[in-house]
Amino acid sequence: MNKVILMGRLTRDPEARYTQTNNTVVSTFSLAVNRRFARQGEERQADFINIVAWSKLAEFCNKYFKKGQQVGIIGRIQTRTWDDDKGVKHYVTEVIAEEAYFADSRRDGDSSTSSFENTFGTSFGAGAPVDSASDFDVSASDDLPF
User: Fold this and answer.
1) What is the distance in angstroms between the CA of the first residue and the CA of the last residue of the chain?
2) pLDDT in 10s for each residue of the chain, 146 residues
């Protein structure tokens, strides 16, 4: 089984690009994930993990995720290799995102964020409907079932 669950802060805004073959959107970003333990007398360290999201999830990440924001990512580890122009083989290991979640308790400075998102967070992943990114418009006067 290949399953990764990460929670960390974005080190930069997601970067979107499109594939040449079928014009599919792909979004890449990096998460700073704190290590669980720190050595005595040292500061807590973080690992910087590259994340890749595809299609609708990539559009969601690119639109809503910003540098410094805490997010949760569920996905799988993937390793790929390629040869550069000089014939040198390169290896990269990255997480292919399958689900993405807001993990901040609240998003400061974003006046467009609804009280629902501030209180409960918002998710967009494999189990969500394809167009769910636009379904999160909840006003303060809406009755919520919980």
Assistant:
1) 35
2) 999 999 999 999 999 999 999 999 999 999 999 998 878 888 889 999 999 999 999 999 999 999 999 999 999 999 999 999 999 999 999 999 999 999 987 655 554 444 334 433 444 554 433 333 334 444 445 454 54
The Cα–Cα gap between 96 and 108 comes to 28
pTM: 0.69
Contact in structure between 11 and 32 (CB atoms under 8 Å)? yes
Strand partners, 90: 82
Residues 29, 10 contacting (CB under 8 angstroms): yes
Tell which CATH classification among 2.40.50.140, 3.40.50.11260, 3.40.50.300, 2.60.40.10 matches the domain 4-128. 2.40.50.140
Cα separation, 142 vs 19, in Å, equals 40
Q: Tokens standing for 4?
A: 């990764």
Backbone angles phi, psi at 115, to 5 degrees: -65, -30
Amino acid symbol at 71: V
**Considering only CA atoms, which of 110, 100, 107, 102 is closest in space to residue 58?**
100
